[in-house]
Amino acid sequence: MRAIDVMTSAVITVDEDATVQAAAKLLAEHHISALPVVDKHDRVIGMVSEGDLLHRAETGTEQRRSWWLEMMTSTNQLAAEYIKSHSAKVKDVMTRDVISVTGETAAADIAVLLETHRIKRVPVLRDGRLVGIVSRANLVRALAMTIHEPSSGAEADDRAIRDKLLTELKAQKWAEVSPVNVTVKDGIVHLWSSYLSEQEKRALVVAAENIPGVRGVEDHMRPVPADLLG
Predict the structure, then answer these.
(1) DSSP at 53
(2) Are 139 and 111 in contact (CB under 8 A)?
């Protein structure tokens, strides 16, 4: 299993000149822990995470040390910490040394990267440009669908089914489904998305059932929580 098989393709990103408050709002609204920071060519130039926003002047959470530790800390480090806790721009708080993978990177290797570097997600790049992101949740979901690795033929068939279904859903105005919420294992489509109405839920199942090669549909969907509907 590779990054391209488990990644989320619809990635929420932010510009380096965006405000810290705008980045925080995106993290909160989309229930994610980090955002790729991209330039105008969709090249990843950084990541801004919850950890980068942990110590902020606005919330009174700046780093504090005892006076003697403050004396031992270099002025360069103190200045860098001041910038990170007070700057209003994403470019000043983001992490610039970004760990990334390609679509062909094995899921096992991604798991090692996440664990080794103590991060929760990695961007997937093609020719330096962002094409997706793989998170711990993506890997856990893939694990839930996999007891034994399928044969290469079965894997190819499952991928073809998934691609056809995602293409069909993308063409439908009512279907707002993230690719990560559609998995296929041995011809069985698993749907994990949230839904607004029973009609939308049924339509998603019907769309999956109509894809050639589908042997069945497993419904893991949940209604959108009432508190998110406004």
Answers:
(1) G
(2) yes
**Structural contact between residues 12 and 85, judged by C-beta atoms closer than 8 angstroms:** no
Cα dihedral across residues 212, 218, 220, 222: positive or negative: positive
Q: What is the pLDDT of residue 48?
A: 93
C-alpha to C-alpha distance for 203 and 180, rounded to whole angstroms: 18
pLDDT exceeds 70 at position 20: yes
Q: Which amino acid is at 64?
A: R
pLDDT interval class at 70 (50, 70, 90)? low
Q: Which domains does the chain have, with CATH numbers?
A: 1-146 (3.10.580.10), 147-228 (3.30.1340.30)
DSSP code at position 96: -
In sequence order, what are the residues at sequence separation of 6 or more whose Cβ sits closer than 8 angstroms to the Cβ of residue 146?
1, 185
Query: Would residue 25 be called left, alpha or beta, if left means φ above 0 and alpha means ψ between -120 and 50 degrees?
Result: alpha
Contact 122, 113 (CB under 8 A): yes
Better pLDDT: 226 or 171: 171
Question: Global pTM?
Answer: 0.57
Closest by CA to 35, choosing from 9, 8, 13, is 13
Helices 107-117 and 136-145 cross at an angle (nearest 10°) of 140
What is the DSSP annotation of 191-230?
E--EESSHHHHHHHHHHHHTSTT--EEEE--EEPPGGG--
The chain-wide mean pLDDT, for the chain, equals 85
Is residue 230 scored above 70 in pLDDT? no
